Amino acid sequence: MKKLFAALAALILLLAPLCGCAGRAAPSPEEVSGALSSPFSADVSVTCRGSEYSGVLTRRADGIDVKMEAPAIFRGMLISFSGGEAAVSYHGLSFSLPSDKLPAASVIGAVVSVLDGELDPDGLSVQPAKDGSGALLITGDGFVLSAAPSDALGGALAPTRLEVPSEELVAIFENVAPAE
Question: Would you say 78 and 66 are in contact if contact means Cβ atoms under 8 Å apart?
Answer without folding.
Answer: yes
